[in-house]
Amino acid sequence: SQSIRDKWIAITIKPVTDYTLLWQAIFLATLLLSLSLYWNRRLARANQKISSTLSELNLAQTKLEEQNQILKKISTTDPLTNVFNRLKLDEALENEIQRAARNGSEFGVILLDIDHFKKVNDTYGHQVGDHSLVIFARLLETAIRSVDIVGRWGGEEFLILCPGTDENGCKLLAENLRALIEEKDFPKTGQQTASFGVTSHKLGEKVEVLIERADRALYRAKESGRNRVEVG
Question: How many angstroms separate the CA atoms of 119 and 156, rounded?
Answer without folding.
Answer: 12
